[in-house]
Amino acid sequence: MKIEIIFRAKRESDGSWVYGDLIQQNSGLTQIQTNLNTWKINPEDIDEYGETITVDPDTVGQFIGREDNSHYKIFDGDIITVNGNNPKIVRYMPERCAFCLSNISDNISDLYHIDEWDIWQQPPAVWWDTMTIEVIGNIYDNKLLLEHGEFLTDNK
């Protein structure tokens, strides 16, 4: 079984998404190194053999190892719908050592905080295969959604 480890983040220079290997320099600089496995999903790349791109560290997200029903890779920070309803945020939760989900309606104020009701849930592996999952956006490009608790689609 091959595990696909991919990160994405927004370029510091223009805010476009890039995909590849995460590099965290001792200087504090955060970069994505594109490579032969990811260059085709990096539309800005000219060199298919890779490029090191400085990115905004606040936008780094890891591929969770799952795709939605349209074969769109799901990343930490994505917003998904389940069976066409209930927009959910996907986040890595260190307290659970897992990627978890939370309804946007339960989680507008603080994306990282686990409060006393523990709103983050870790679905079992079989759940992903039995539900209709669609990536409808992310927490970086769709901040209006997070403020108002509503979603306007077509923003992958």
The CATH architecture of the largest domain? Roll
Strand line-up of the largest beta sheet: 4-3-2-1-5-6
Helix/strand-derived class?
Answer: mainly beta
Task: Give the termini distance in whole angstroms.
Answer: 28 Å
Number of domains: 2
Largest sheet: 6 strands, antiparallel
CATH superfamily of the largest domain: YopX-like domains
Alpha-carbon Rg, integer: 16 Å
User: Helicity, in percent?
Assistant: under 10%
Give me the strand/helix succession: EEEEEEEEEHEH
Output the CATH topology of the largest domain: SH3 type barrels
Label the overall shape.
globular
Work out the helix count: 2
Low-confidence stretches: 151-156
Quaternary class = single chain
Estimate the strand proportion.
35-45%
CATH class type of the largest domain: Mainly Beta
Mean pLDDT comes to 81
Number of strands: 10
Task: Please tell me about this protein's structure.
By secondary structure, the chain is mostly beta strands. The chain folds into 2 domains: 7-58, no CATH class; 67-148, YopX-like domains (SH3 type barrels, Roll), CATH 2.30.30.290. Helices cover 8% and strands 35% of the residues. It has 2 helices and 10 strands. The chain has helices spanning 125-130, 143-148; strands spanning 7-10, 17-24, 30-33, 52-54, 61-67, 73-75, 78-82, 85-93, 98-103, 133-138. The strands form 2 sheets. It has a 6-stranded antiparallel sheet, with no helix packed on it.
Structural features:
single chain; 156 residues; mainly beta; SH3 type barrels; 2 domains; six-stranded antiparallel sheet; four-stranded antiparallel sheet; 2 helices; 35% strand; disordered C terminus
